[in-house]
Amino acid sequence: MRGLGLSIAQRYLDPGESLAELLFGLIMTLSFTLGAGVLVREDPNAARELLAATIGCNVAWGIIDGVLYLSGKLFERARKVRLGERIRSAESDDAAAPIVAEELAEVLGMTVPEDEHGGLYRRMARHVRASQPRAYGLGLEDLYGAIASFWLVFFGSLPAVLPFLFIDDAWIALRVSNAILILLLFVTGFRWAGYTALRPWPTGLVFM
User: Fold this and answer.
1) Does residue 183 contact residue 162 with C-beta atoms inside 8 Å?
2) Distance of alpha carbon 97 from its chain centroid, rounded?
3) By CB neighbour count within 10 A (0-12 exposed, 13-18 middle, 19+ buried), where does 167 fall?
4) What is the C-alpha separation between 6 and 98, in angstroms, rounded?
5) Residue 182: its pLDDT value, please?
6) Per-residue DSSP letter, 111
7) CA distance from start to end of the chain
8) Residue of 131, 132, 140, 187 whose CA lies nearest to 159
9) By three-state DSSP, how is residue 166 classified?
10) pTM for the full predicted model
11) Using CA atoms, how far apart are residues 127 and 131, in angstroms rounded to an integer?
């Protein structure tokens, strides 16, 4: 189940989205379990009760994040439709080119020589002006992305539970749970540094 969830996340979320969702789940769970240290000395059952509440909270926030993911996708597509309308309503290709530049200048600035920007913007504007408006909406892949968002937030709460299944002493189990979550913060930073020019070890330590 874990492998399936992470596989879906890799397929339908970009690394930045996956990182944000997983970090959210880990940090929120760690906040709860660190707070449990105050209560567990008074009542050994308090840690288990708090962890159950943490899982419930992560489920709720996972659902919210899934909905926000869908909302974000819909908003971005509607924004692009609006951008297309602005380009089509311009008086000419030259007048539409600055609108294209507002959207793409940062990306093209890293990949295309500056003296080619103007002609490229005009060609893009001409292409958009000659095309028909596209419909926007949500599809099955968007639903899978929302499920992946939910899973990553929910997954952040699962490692916190494992020590309580194998360790009888609630205080020791709680501290092992904290250690696992902190280690996972390091692993998350180390793993996702591979998608960037950042060095894995320093990145993992910063996240931890």
Assistant:
1) no
2) 32
3) middle
4) 41
5) 92
6) T
7) 26
8) 187
9) helix
10) 0.78
11) 6
Tokens 């930073």 correspond to 189
Nearest to 188 by CA among 50, 1, 19, 12: 19
- How far apart are the C-alpha atoms of 64 and 57, rounded to whole Å? 11
Token digits of residue 22 = 């997983």
Q: Residue 158: what residue type? A: L
pLDDT digits 0-9 by tens, 100-150: 999 988 888 888 888 888 999 999 999 999 998 888 889 999 999 999 999
The one-character DSSP state at 194 is T
Inter-residue contact 101 to 121 (CB < 8 Å) = yes
Q: Cα-flanking dihedrals φ and ψ of residue 155, to 5°?
A: -60, -30
Tokens of 78: 């509607």
Residue type, 156: G
Nearest to 65 by CA among 34, 28, 11, 10: 28
